[in-house]
Automatic annotation (TrEMBL):
This is NAD-dependent succinate-semialdehyde dehydrogenase. Keywords: NADP, Oxidoreductase. Coiled coil: none annotated. InterPro entries: Ald_DH/histidinol_DH, Ald_DH_C, Ald_DH_N, Aldehyde_DH_dom, ALDH_GabD1-like, GABD/Sad-like. Pfam families: Aldedh. Residues 3-446 form the Aldehyde dehydrogenase domain. It comes from the Bacteria. The keyword Acetylation does not apply. It comes from Sphingomonas echinoides. The keyword Oxidoreductase applies.
Length: 448
């Protein structure tokens, strides 16, 4: 049994029953049958369904957003934006998908794209709609079918997504929610009817899924953790950089793989940036996520709050200084104040920590080489943000930052039309854009 807990109040919400073994088998059989029909549908049928799903998200935006806010604590305004982004994601593939699947001609050969079968998605709670749509929209366009194992604390969101797809007129079995626990995932991956698996989550979860997929020789896409650098050089617009840094650190209460987590600032502007950034972080309003005046809601759970508090204690023990913040707020709920860590020893293991909460690390860099060295000195390589108005510096960062994505003079954010993913221990494979569509398709070469 799964029971939602409102992290803003600690109050229990709706409960959801876990599937039995027989029910899992029924859903697998239904997915296999659905694929036999869906794989041969024309592109117009697929794009029409994607457009109708987008309409369902639009028509139910506020209700869907409220479910996410109550289950994992993000502000209602950010939940609404997430639902709207999902509708845009479905529309993107409805509009651009056919062109992405155009055959490519070579001398004496043609390369064509073909669906593979049922794809299993193991998804997290932090962007509970968007993470699913990043897999689901291209899955439908590809001619595949999808099965979702969502995080335990967002089962209401999972059920709502399935409701939207069914209401849009999807064939039975095209997309199914699986209310199951993590111990059932390995057996699903091993099942011959599952052709591939995609996971967004922790390193530990990624290793387990990759191991299971490897044993079954199945394709896997992994989007794992990140400790994204936010680099500020003297030529940058400091006011804009500091303002953006606050948003980049506290978005989703700091619970995003592509949140800016490590602020790496050139020595010449370190003090000025710290003054501006500190003022912004101190002004962050944490409170009721349903209130439009709230900047930041609670962390997703009391357990997540404790995890961040334990990490902050590790930083203190390593010699780092918590300038302010990083404290539980009085009253009910998993609230933590926004804060800043300084004097973090760059050569200590704590500097590699991914803090999934609204506390930033600040590092000082003497020059661009030192900034790039600090940026790359972690096992992650998901995203990054660099702030410079020097073309030569920009070229260096674009070439030398070890990450799957880089934003220049902007906060990093995912877009339906742009590839999303990382390198190193942040995973492999890509979501979104044409590359996300192609990940789980057979590129078939036709000669003659």
């Amino acid at each position: 049994m799964f029971t939602s807990i409102d992290p803003a109040t600690g109050a229990p919400g709706q409960s959801y029953r876990e599937l039995t073994g027989d029910e899992i088998e029924t859903r697998l059989a239904r997915a296999s049958a659905a694929f036999r029909d869906w794989r041969v549908t024309d592109y117009a049928t697929r794009t029409a369904l994607l457009a109708r799903i987008a309409e369902q998200f639009d028509a139910n935006t506020h209700r869907l957003a409220e479910i996410a806010t109550r289950e994992m604590g993000k502000t209602l305004k950010s939940a609404i934006a997430e639902v709207e982004k999902c509708a845009a994601g479905f529309r993107h593939y409805a509009q651009e998908g056919p062109a992405m699947l155009e055959p490519r001609q070579f001398q004496g050969a043609t390369a064509t794209w073909h669906p593979m079968g049922p794809v299993l998605a193991v998804m997290p709670w932090n962007f509970p709609y968007w993470q699913v749509v990043r897999f689901l929209a291209p899955t439908i366009m590809a001619g595949n079918v999808g099965l979702l194992k969502h995080a335990s604390n967002v089962q209401g969101v999972a059920a709502a997504i399935e409701e939207m797809v069914i209401a849009a007129g999807a064939p039975a079995g095209l997309f199914q929610n699986l209310p199951i626990k993590s111990d059932k995932v390995a057996a699903l991956i091993a099942d011959d009817r599952i052709v591939a698996v995609t996971l967004t989550g922790s390193e530990g979860a990624g290793m387990k899924v990759a191991e299971a997929a490897g044993r079954a020789l199945k394709k896997v896409v992994l989007e794992l953790g990140g400790s994204d650098p936010f680099i500020v050089m003297p030529s940058a617009d400091l006011d804009l950089a500091a303002k953006t840094a606050v948003t980049a650190r506290i978005q989703n209460t700091g619970q995003s793989c592509i949140c800016a987590k490590r602020m790496i600032v050139h020595a010449d502007v370190y003090d000025a940036f710290l003054e501006k950034f500190s003022a912004g972080m101190r002004a962050v309003v944490a409170g009721d996520p349903m209130d439009a005046a709230t900047d930041m809601g609670p962390l997703s759970s009391e357990a997540q709050l404790q995890t961040v508090l334990d990490q902050l204690q590790m930083f203190r023990e390593a010699g780092a200084k918590l300038m302010f913040g990083g404290e539980p707020l009085p009253g009910k709920g998993a609230y933590l104040s926004a804060g800043i860590l300084v004097d973090v020893p760059a050569d200590h293991a704590v500097a590699h920590e991914e803090v999934f909460g609204p506390v930033a690390m600040l590092f000082k860099a003497d020059d661009i080489d030192a900034a790039i060295g600090l940026a790359n000195a972690v096992p992650f390589g998901l995203g990054s943000s660099v702030w410079t108005n020097d073309p030569a510096e920009r070229a260096r960062f674009e070439r030398d930052i070890e990450a799957g994505m880089i934003a220049v003079n902007a906060m990093l954010a995912s877009k339906p039309d742009a590839p999303f993913g990382g390198i190193k221990r942040s995973g492999h494979g890509r979501e979104l854009g044409p590359y996300g569509l192609h990940e789980f398709m057979n590129l078939k070469t036709v000669i003659g």
